[in-house]
Structures are given as structure tokens and as C-alpha cells.
Write a structure and sequence with these properties.
The chain is α/β, with parallel strands linked by helices. The protein has 2 domains: 2-170 and 340-358, 3-Layer(aba) Sandwich (Rossmann fold); 184-327, 3-Layer(aba) Sandwich (Rossmann fold). Helix content is 45%, strand content 16%. It contains 16 helices and 13 strands. The chain has helices spanning 11-24, 47-52, 69-87, 99-110, 130-140, 150-158, 172-180, 200-203, 206-219, 231-239, 243-248, 260-268, 278-287, 302-305, 316-327, 344-358, and strands spanning 2-8, 30-36, 60-61, 91-95, 114-120, 144-147, 166-168, 192-196, 224-228, 252-255, 272-275, 291-293, 309-311. Helix 1 (11-24) links the parallel strand 1 and strand 2. The chain is globular, with a radius of gyration of 20 Å. It binds uridine-diphosphate-N-acetylglucosamine. Uridine-diphosphate-N-acetylglucosamine binds next to helix 1, helix 5 and helix 10.
Length: 359
């Protein structure tokens, strides 16, 4: 019997862990333990995802909450040590690139426990992003690196990670998406755009955030925008005194963070999506919905090379230009990348089973 302890903390982690845990349940020789760090804690950011994705209640909730990098890392590591001493897992699984990911990988490694990283090898090459550091360091100390797209393999090999640790299994977020497909509402009226913004590089920078809002102001004059607003972004609007800009936009609708199924339904039926999220770039590619990424780079190049994603940058004129192109019918067509087929969790657990038995 192998004890596998999965660590989650934020919205995207929940989407990635759900299919993995469901797959583990099919194997008699695996016991699954789930730890929620509590990095995200509001109902709409956490519990609603557990409900929509049928994730079992966590065995441990570390209730770490919000705070600086130092605070979140130290609290998670300290509290995880107690859990590890008690549970003595054979393997710790982390997903994505958030603070809970790196903290989990660090405590696993220093406790001499094997680490598996789901969604390894992605690189934005933008060192301003904490996520980029989290990705690089987590990959450096992981024993199993499960990758979503070919670019990840090149990145990891260049960093000296041995080929035998790298497994191309596809995108586990698509497993969740396909699992929810029957619940996603279809609609013929694609007369709106979805906007999401939460990257500190965009919304914590007053000038840049203003520039993006100016672009949004222009675009909503042509088409309705629906904006599920992240708590960080909401705080910055108040702090920077941008409420007047939002109020002046007559054709934009701000809503609270949406649950998983509602967000998928909204995205699937949109005319296009404007976002700085990583996961949404992938979901847009799967749905074949055009996506304007409001960043200068992406760690998910397959969404641009194969999918519907366009890196629109953060400059007002360029964002408006790209949006108008879509409104004029110049729509980028895409395909679904390899292994984005809903069978990623199956592949991962098969690989773990084979390799853990061998050890
Ligand atoms: C985190 C991840 C980011 C990921 C995002 C997904 C890191 C460094 N960042 O960013 O990579 O894309 O999650 O959503 O790990 N807050 C609430 N309620 C909550 C959670 C947060 O109000 O349930 C507010 C707090 O004011 C908090 C702020 O949002 O300070 C930011 O939360 P935090 O977890 O630090 O980072 P995110 O911006 O959510």
C-alpha cells in the first residue's frame, strides 16, 4: 500500500487535483490523503470548487490564509511538517506554480519523501513572476515531472533535469473540463466578452492597470464585457481610486468570482476572452474560443502555436487592435493539443504505480 499525499491551496490547484484523486481511488494499492493549505479560503474561491469538482473533503486544512510569500511559505512548511511526521506518506503530489506548490515540494524533499509535480516544465521566462520561481524550484527538486505540452520537455532538459524523470501526459485541467462537459450550458448568443485579471504584474502596477482599464473602456463600447473579479483586483481598484473608471463603463458587468461550472459555461459561449490567467488560456484553446492574453508572454506556448491564444501584451492600443480584429471576424482558428483528451490522470497514475512498485 502506497500513501500518496496531495497538497492544494488555490483555485487552479483544485481543478488539477480532482481527476488525479478520482483516479487514485480506482487503485487498491493507493491510499490518498488530501491537504488544503488554506491559501484560498473564501467560499467562491475554494469550497465551491470542491463541490463542483466532487473533491473529497481535505483530511487536513492548514488554514494558512493570505499574507506575504514569507508568511505563506513558513506557515505551510511548519504545519506540513507535523502532518508528514504523522502520516509518513510515500509520495507528495503538488500541482501548478503557486506558493502552496513550492512549499509542499520543499517540505517533501527535506523530509526525504518523493515529489511528483503535475504541470511541470512550463516557463514564461519572466522573472518578475513569483510563479516562475515557484515552477523552476519545484521542478528542480521533483522526482516525477508530468508535463502538459512539448515545450516543457525542452525547458527541463535545458535546465539539466534527466529525461527519465519527465513524462508527457497532457493537461489534467482538460480531464476536469471534459468531466464537467455535460453540465456546461450551451448558448447561441456569443454577444459578450469575458475578462479576468489577477496577476500582480498587471493589477498591482497602478499605471499598467490604468492602461489596461483604458483599453477595456474602449472595447466595451463595441461589445458587452462580463468581468468575474478576483479579490486582489477588487482591492486594487479601490486602493488606486479607479472606481470612477469602472463606473463610467456602461457596458461592463462586474460579478463575484464564479464557480467552476459557471465559469466554464461563460467562457465556452463567449465571443472571445481577455485574460491574464494561465488556465483560462488552456480552456479557451480547448473550447476553440479566441483568447487575448493580457501579458507579454505565456508559459503555455502550445496555446499560441496550436490553439486560439494571442499574446496581446499590456499596451492599450495593441489590446484594442486585437479585440477589434476579432469583432471584424478575423478569428484565429485552433486545434486541440496532443494528449488534451481527458485521460491525463489515467496516464499519471499508471506511471506512478509502475515506478513506485519498482522502487
Ligand atoms: C494565487 C497564485 C497565482 C494564481 C492565483 C489563482 C501565488 C503566488 N499566486 O494568486 O499564481 O494564479 O492564486 O487564483 O501563489 N483573497 C481573498 N480570498 C481568498 C483568497 C485571496 O480575499 O480566498 C485575497 C486576499 O486579499 C489576498 C489576495 O486575494 O491577499 C491574493 O491572494 P493570494 O493567494 O496571495 O494570491 P492570488 O492573487 O490569489
Amino acid at each position: 500500500m502506497f500513501k500518496i499525499l496531495s497538497i492544494v491551496g488555490t483555485r487552479p490547484n483544485f481543478v488539477k487535483i480532482a481527476p488525479f484523486i478520482a483516479e487514485l481511488e480506482k487503485y487498491k494499492n493507493f491510499k490518498s490523503i488530501l491537504v488544503h493549505t488554506g491559501q484560498h479560503y473564501d467560499f467562491g474561491m475554494s469550497e465551491s470548487f470542491f463541490k463542483d469538482l466532487s473533491i473529497p473533503k481535505p483530511d487536513y486544512n492548514l488554514s494558512v490564509g493570505s499574507g506575504s510569500f514569507a508568511f505563506q511559505m513558513s506557515e505551510i512548511i511548519k504545519k506540513m511538517e507535523t502532518v508528514i511526521l504523522k502520516e509518513k506518506p510515500d509520495l507528495i503530489v503538488v500541482t501548478g506554480d503557486v506558493n502552496s506548490t513550492l512549499a509542499g515540494a520543499l517540505i517533501a524533499k527535506t523530509s526525504k519523501i518523493l515529489v511528483a509535480h503535475i504541470e511541470a516544465g512550463l516557463r514564461s521566462f519572466d522573472n518578475r513572476m513569483i510563479e516562475e520561481m515557484n515552477r523552476i524550484l519545484t521542478d528542480r527538486i521533483s522526482d516525477f515531472l508530468f508535463i502538459t505540452e512539448p515545450s516543457a520537455k525542452n525547458n527541463l532538459l535545458k535546465e539539466g533535469i534527466p529525461n527519465k524523470k519527465i513524462f508527457f501526459v497532457g493537461d489534467i485541467m482538460i480531464d476536469s473540463l471534459k468531466g464537467a462537459e455535460s453540465l456546461i450550458k450551451s448558448s447561441n448568443c456569443d454577444d459578450y466578452v469575458v475578462l479576468t485579471l489577477h496577476r500582480p504584474e498587471n493589477v498591482d502596477d497602478k499605471n499598467l492597470f490604468k492602461e489596461i482599464l483604458e483599453a477595456v473602456t474602449e472595447i466595451q463600447k463595441k461589445i458587452k464585457i462580463i468581468w468575474p473579479i478576483h479579490p486582489r483586483t477588487n482591492s486594487r481598484i479601490k486602493e488606486f481610486g479607479f472606481e470612477y473608471m469602472v463606473k463610467n463603463m456602461k457596458n461592463i458587468k462586474l460579478v463575484s468570482p464564479l464557480g467552476y461550472i459557471d465559469m466554464l459555461s461563460l467562457n465556452k459561449n463567449a465571443k472571445f476572452i481577455m485574460t491574464d490567467s494561465g488556465g483560462i488560456q488552456e480552456e479557451a484553446t480547448f473550447f476553440g474560443v479566441p483568447c487575448l492574453t493580457i501579458r507579454d508572454n505565456t508559459e503555455r506556448p502550445v496555446t499560441v502555436e496550436v490553439g486560439t491564444n494571442i499574446i496581446a501584451g499590456t499596451k492599450k492600443d495593441r489590446i484594442i487592435k486585437e479585440a477589434y480584429k476579432i469583432l471584424l471576424g478575423k478569428i484565429k482558428k485552433g486545434k486541440i493539443p496532443k494528449y488534451w483528451d481527458g485521460k491525463t490522470a489515467e496516464r499519471i497514475v499508471k506511471i506512478l504505480n509502475k515506478n513506485l512498485i519498482k522502487r
